[in-house]
TrEMBL record:
GO cellular component: cytosol; nucleus
Residue ranges of domain USP in the record: 279-572
Pfam family, any one: UCH
Region (Disordered): 1-113
An example molecular function term from Gene Ontology annotations: cysteine-type deubiquitinase activity
Similarity-based family: Belongs to the peptidase C19 family.
Residue ranges with Acidic residues bias: 83-111
Keywords, in A-Z order: Hydrolase, Protease, Thiol protease, Ubl conjugation pathway
Signal peptide range in chain numbering: none
Residue ranges, compositional bias (Polar residues): 14-25, 69-80
UniProt-recorded name of the protein: Ubiquitin carboxyl-terminal hydrolase
Lineage: Eukaryota, Metazoa, Spiralia, Gnathifera, Rotifera
Native source organism of the sequence: Rotaria sordida
Record-listed E.C. numbers: 3.4.19.12
Amino acid sequence: MSGIKRSFLAEDCSATTNDNNSALTDNNIQSSSPSDSPQSKKLRRSSSHHTTESENDDETQEDRYEQENGVTNGHSPVQSERSEEEEDDDEDDDDDDDDDEATEAEPECFSDDSIVHVSFDNGKDDIFRYDGSIRFHIIAPSRPQSGQLTSDQSIIRTFIWTLLAFSKPNYDSCHNDGGTFSLFLKCEPEKLSPGWSIFAKAELTLLHATDSNKNFVKKINHLFNARSIDWGFHQFKSLKEIYSEFIHWPDNTIRIEAKIHADAPRNVEWDSKGQTGFVGLRNIGATCYMNSFLQTIYFTKKLRRAVYALPTDSDDQLHSIPLALQKLFYDLQFTDRPVNEFCQHDIQEFCRVLLDKLESKMEGTTMEGVIPSLFQGQYVQYVRCTKVDHESRVKQTFYDVPLQVRNNANITESFRDFCKSEILTGENLYDAGSIHGLQEAEKGVKFQKFPPVLCLHLLRFEYDYNLSQHRKINDSYSFDYHLDLSEFLENPDCSLCSYKLLSILVHSGDNSSGHYVSFINPALDGQWFKFDDDVVARVAASDAMERNFGGTQDDDGSMYNTSAYMLVYIREDCQKDVLCDINQEDIPQNLITRFDYDKKYLLKRRQDMMDNDGFVDVQIILTDDFHIQQTICLTDLICENPVELLQNKRCLRYIQAQHGEIFRVFARRLAYALV
């Protein structure tokens, strides 16, 4: 993005219109009222008030501004009505000015010849980037003048971002601020799309010439949409302060910088595959929790390869989870559009059910043992007598580790809490058998082996006995990209306890409702992607990690309702094995043939629907069809899986009915078709 140097246009100069930088004279802009309340300085939509000399000019100016800015709802400057007495006063003032022209100083006026471009936005060629900046340099007249200026554009998340600056000087000696300087951030989609929205954070900075610590900064957090395309401050800074403190640059400019950080947009044409190489999963109704976990195990490539190798030729396509998972992984890897998932469970239940189903399906095949080799760890529960030589040890396996968030600040503290020993004494003496009897003992846990893929469940929900309901724990809880668990191994081995963070599963909301997304680092190289149902976008590492710690993080001290609830780490010594490459040659040919057939059938059906627009297919079901049907009802079978019907060589008979066709005519054609 290139910076611009421009001047505010002075009063009475010849009006010029160039894009959004049309001249606004002092007669067209009303100075800020001294009675403005402190609340008026708060963040709000831009809506300055101005008047004109005539009704026709009033309409022209407003229409031109709305056409140029695409706004008609008052988020940008609009005109205000005034009384006839005020208009008469303005006419008298104009007459006085004409009678006393000698007392008026010749206004300064700058043309586009003063524009200077400065290259600084290194990522401007990447229109999908998640952050960017705008620098706006304005040549300051020796005396503040009224005007409106628009910066050059910056493209972020395919959206067009600009800065809007307004100067409203006040020469009344009763006012000490010299007038106000307004600044707004404007956002528009490159292509209009109904219902579009994009959330962004921005820092608007007025740069100090000699001391960066004296820079003046205001922050924006806003959901931009068609009804709110700009957001900022009517009273960003007084002109008196700007002229006295911030215009000390050699070129006599006002320098503004905006740093913008935007999430992926919603309800727009967003090419996830094109900009990230990955596709998302459609949310078919309260299934976002499942999407986040499925994306995580998809990037556990050794597991994906094992799933592809499962024998599913004879599986029922409607009820086989392994076959559905094969189809899901295949579509995620080779299609360009968001994919539909296949089943629905509670998140904890879903994780365990899925792994159990896969493990049982792999028994007796070459893939047997893959699930335990990836996810299974081992710990020992011990009870050690403190006064006699006796110890009891019980080995346990685990597929995930539940970690307490309450009263713990990070993963290390939670593991210490998990492994914390307790002394059995008093009424809780340990029974050491017939030889030693009841003894004082130490009870605790020690890990013996951590798995290559370590799943950590952060216990964000607890039951509140006072309120008789579950509540979400949104306390601040940090986690690191690198994790060292040697402290918790019974026999420490650095090569078996060093991990990198692969995936963060995040929940937004409370205990009764919310939304799940996942942040994944597929190559363990620090490049993060956000998977929000069918939208996939690159994000900064801070968006994936720090913003999901929970706790009090807002500027106003309010609690975030977004926090991580599951972390997946990959052991560094197993990184190449777990994240192995998977090509089409690694997929059994029978799966490729089956899935390609399904895809061609669905494409043909979609094309037939487009070709037969205005017609509907009516399936003919006769008595014989009911006799041969042995399982679920015909309607469900037909609606849910027409592909399976074709594969089973079922005879499907259709006749086309035109919308609005008289039933008598349709019945006659149906009779001929059955002959």
